[in-house]
Design a protein that fits this description.
The structure is a single chain. The protein is mostly helical. Helix content is about 85%, strand content about 0%. It is built from four helices and no strands. Helix 2 packs across helix 3. The radius of gyration is 26 Å and the shape is rod-shaped. The mean pLDDT is about 90. This is Transposase. Keywords: Coiled coil.
């Protein structure tokens, strides 16, 4: 079996159909020709995207990750500068 790409419109229509039909997700997925677990994931993703706190949380998580990366880079630069200062202080024989 190959992998299939579904358009965003198809995904949103499938999620809307699954929510409004009242039928089991597996039956709706079979009618659409989609794996039932794929449809469940689409529903889960849609529910997650609809919650405003989820969007804010993901934004915060991304910002925290970027700041942590920046801290690691700055600490590495600081350590390099410390080693360089120590090296040059030893070379001058003060």
């Amino acid at each position: 079996m190959g992998t299939y790409k579904y358009s965003a419109e198809f995904r949103s229509d499938a999620v809307a159909l699954a929510r409004s039909s009242g039928r089991p997700v597996s039956r709706v997925a079979a009618e659409l020709g989609v794996n039932h677990e794929t449809l469940r994931q689409w529903i889960k993703t849609a529910e997650h995207a609809e919650r405003p706190e989820a969007v804010a949380q993901s934004t915060k998580d991304a910002e925290i990750a970027a700041l942590r990366k920046q801290v690691r880079e700055l600490e590495m630069e600081r350590d390099i500068l410390r080693r360089a200062a120590k090296y040059f202080a030893g070379e001058t024989n003060w």
